[in-house]
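I am still getting used to backbone structure tokens and would like to learn alongside you. Label the sequence line and the structure token line clearly, so we can match residues to local backbone shapes. Would you write everything just below, so we can both look at the same thing?
***
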Amino acid sequence: MAYNLLKGKRGIIFGALDHNSIAWKVAEKAHEEGAKFVLTNAPVAMRMGEIKELAEKTGSEIIPADATSLKDLENLIDKAQEILGGKLDFVLHSIGMSVNVRKGRPYTNLNYDWLTKGWDVSAVSFHKLMNLLYNKDAMNDHGSIVAYSYIAAQRVFPDYNDMADNKAYLEAIARNFGYFFAKKNGVRVNTISQSPTPTTAGKGVKSFEGFLKYAELMSPLGNATAEECADYTLTLFSDLTRKVTMQNLFHDGGFSSTGVSMEMMDLFMKNLDEKEEEGKK
């Protein structure tokens, strides 16, 4: 059911790779809610994904851009305004990667060239993007900029590796740039700390299925799906959240506030009993 939450609003959506992407779901729902937008992703990601299908479905144009390139980002912002007919009301930054994770390098023995690459794509790109949006005066008053994070920015999840550091830096950028954007023209900048979600990128993390099952057992409401995250994102793009900024907003079914769940305690006690029985044999 649509509510015309974004009727007349214009934006840019980064990172819609395929049907599993949160950004893909955001694009579908933003279209349903009356928004117009351009889609963008890195050229290599576009060759791997299905973004043309999404563009046709939502009546959107695609502008390829390497999010680490100021030249590409400037071209994206300029062309998006030309295509959409004015300044932007919302921007979604839904990109992140770690070469160390992909290559299986442990946190205790990182390749620092790979670290720098992942840091640039996952976090510094967000600063570059907002720098250009800010200095080119490309955002409408009371607009909204959102990026996606994960609770590993605050807590240790060993297999999340250097992506945890990338997310921590991403959140810091959102807070700091959020201050300047708010003072300039009321633009909001927030990150959403989402449940582990079986996207193409998420599945690349070692032991991802374990992440998923553990979070499901620990979350009173269960894990938030990609579609539910898209719904939440749209509220931040809408005019209903004009005083929400510089926040890292947990969208995780209560995981972030739960010390231990009964389900996890039952599982722990069952395993403990089994080990004790084995020890008696």
